[in-house]
Specification:
Layout: E1 10-18, H1 35-47, E2 54-55, E3 65-74, H2 82-88, E4 93-101, E5 113-121, E6 136-137, H3 144-152, E7 156-159, E8 173-179, E9 182-190, E10 193-207, H4 221-225, H5 229-235, H6 241-248
Parallel strand pairs: 5-6
Antiparallel strand pairs: 1-3, 1-4, 2-3, 5-10, 7-8, 8-10, 9-10
Helix pairs in contact: 3-5, 3-6
C-alpha cells in the first residue's frame, strides 16, 4: 500500500498478462471490448478518479500479451493493490506486478526492447484444440531451414517501408535483434499410445525506439505485418528466400 501526500500524484508501473481472444485489441473503441477499457475502469474505480493508461505497445484484436507494461499517475492509491486489482478484473486479464516508479518512467519510451512470438502448427491433423487460439494452422509441412535463411536477412536495422504506409513524422526503420524459427514437438501420453503435436515457433526481438522518435505511433504495425504468415510462405516453397531480402531492402541501412 502507498499513500500519496494530498494534492500530489504517484506514478505506477503495472505488468500484466491477458488472453486477447475475446478482446478487440488494447486501445479503447466505442462499443467494443478492449483491454484498456477493462483495466481502466477497474483502476478508475479503485483510485476514485479517471486516469490515463500508457502501455509499452498496443496489441491488435485477438493478440495475447505476457509481460505487457502499463503506467499511470494517481493521487488516491490506498486501495491500489494486486488483490484489489485482480479481484475486480475479468478472468482473461491478470496484473502480475505493481510498482511505484519515478515520474520520468514511461512504459512506452523506457522500454529497451520488445518481443513478439509467433507459433505455427503444421500438423496435418490440425492443431491441438487446447492450443488453437494461440497458433496459426497450416496443413503443409514447413521447411524450417528455408524460413531461417530468409529470416537472417531481416536481422539488423532495415527500412521496412514495403510492409506499411508510413505516417507523417513516422519512420519505417526498425532494428531486429533476434529472429529464428525452431520446431517443437510435444508428446502426449495416453496409456500405451504416444502421439505428438507438431509446431514451429519464432520469437522476434526488436530494439525499442528512443524518446527521439516520440512522434512514431506507439504500436508496431510493421512487425505485425512481417509476422508468422509471410515466412511460412517460404517454408511452404511458395517464395524464394531472395524475395524477402528484396522487399526488406528498399532504402535500407543494413547495420548489424
Amino acid at each position: 500500500m502507498v499513500d500519496s501526500p494530498r494534492g500530489t500524484t504517484t506514478r505506477f508501473r503495472l505488468q500484466l498478462s491477458y488472453d486477447g481472444s475475446e478482446f478487440h485489441g488494447w486501445a479503447k473503441q466505442r462499443g467494443l471490448r478492449t483491454v484498456e477499457d477493462e483495466l481502466g475502469s477497474v483502476v478508475d474505480h479503485l483510485v476514485a478518479e479517471h486516469v490515463d493508461l500508457t502501455c509499452a505497445g498496443r496489441t491488435d484484436a485477438g493478440v495475447h500479451a505476457r509481460g505487457q507494461v502499463v503506467h499511470f499517475d494517481a493521487e488516491r492509491v490506498d486501495r491500489l493493490t494486486l488483490d484489489h486489482l485482480n479481484g475486480a478484473l475479468p478472468h482473461d486479464v491478470r496484473v502480475r506486478q505493481i510498482d511505484v516508479v519515478p515520474p520520468e518512467f514511461d512504459a512506452r519510451f523506457s522500454a529497451q526492447w520488445r518481443r513478439y512470438s509467433y507459433t505455427v502448427s503444421d500438423d496435418p491433423r490440425g492443431p491441438d484444440p487446447l492450443m488453437r487460439r494461440y497458433q496459426l494452422a497450416l496443413s503443409d509441412e514447413l521447411d524450417i531451414d528455408a524460413m531461417n535463411e530468409a529470416s537472417r536477412a531481416l536481422v539488423g536495422e532495415h527500412d521496412f517501408s514495403s510492409y506499411c504506409k508510413v505516417k507523417e513524422h513516422g519512420t519505417s526503420v526498425r532494428e531486429v535483434l533476434e529472429l529464428e524459427w525452431d520446431r517443437r514437438v510435444s508428446r502426449l501420453n495416453s496409456g500405451r499410445n504416444v502421439s505428438g503435436e507438431r509446431a514451429v515457433f519464432a520469437p522476434v526481438i526488436n530494439k525499442a525506439r528512443s524518446r527521439t522518435t516520440r512522434l512514431i505511433s506507439d504500436h508496431d504495425p510493421i512487425l505485425r505485418r512481417m509476422g508468422a504468415s509471410s515466412p511460412s510462405h517460404l517454408g511452404q516453397s511458395r517464395q524464394e528466400p531472395q524475395w524477402r531480402r528484396h522487399h526488406s531492402g528498399r532504402g535500407a541501412c543494413h547495420r548489424r
